[in-house]
Amino acid sequence: MSRAKLQQLGIELPLFPITSVGSFPKPDFLLKARADFANQKIRRGALEKAERQATLFWIRKQEELGADVLVDGEMYRGDMVAYFAENLEGFEEGGLVRSYGNRYYHKPIITGEVRWDEPITVEWWKYARGLTSKPVKGMLTGPYTVMDWSFIEYYPDRRSACLALAKEIRKEVKALIEEGARIIQIDEPAASVRPEELPLAIEAMHIVTDGLPAYFITHICYGAFENIYPGMLELPVDNFDLEMSNSGLGMLELFTQYPYTKDISLGVVDVHSHLVEEEPVVEQRLRQALQILPKEAIWVDPDCGLKTRTVEEAIAKMQSVATAAKALRENSKK
Ligand SMILES: [Zn+2]
Q: Residue 88, class by beta-carbon neighbours within 10 Å (0-12 exposed, 13-18 middle, 19+ buried)?
């Protein structure tokens, strides 16, 4: 259990902390600003103003919904890998490729030594943190996923590229911690895709997190957890943020076979569906998890980032998450 670690870091959270994976949909005014910027109709400053306005919008929404650990919503990002590739040295933008599901992105090319020269997300974290009294998660894409979703030209193999990235991403983690971030999420959605490379993802995560004073979360999605469980428990993080509802909570069955040992951010609404789950459905998912996992270990959130939903759908899904978590919280006091 990592409640003690959170307390050491000065963070008190209620039972079933309500959070979200990271991304929220961009409001219409920001979509327009991004298009105008791409067409050179507005300057970068005007785009950033719209990004800040959208960040404020989502911070307020999360507060209204009763979220306990907030995110900045990633209003300034296009793609989660391309964003870091654009902001680290050693990358060039590649052509548009199709990845998992219906995700299209410019697959970056590693053409030189990867290098972190200055903070990437820190200003956004500080801005979001200044808007609320609640903790705000620092949000980074992990080295394994950045490597896996890039073409590698400069390094001789995947391992050396991944470990080089890990050393640089650690610098961003340290920069966040220096500014006061105490909960940091290192997204590794690609970690479940090639089970034979799980040891590499683990080695890289050690480089990123070892010895640093923060509560670390990693988000893994795209299903196939059965391929990497229980080995994935070796990842040096405190909390796994897992897509659970999309797989009909099949992961819980694995936990009965081999005990789960960390905190979990339990994905309880499907982000791929327009359908907004009724609160009793979400509550039932939580109750199922509670039969297997201790209540102190469970955080509650959607399966994945909500950026592909509409603003209204994202709010409605967060509402279902929050209502169910609060109901269970009340219930557990009785
Ligand atoms: Zn995800």
A: buried
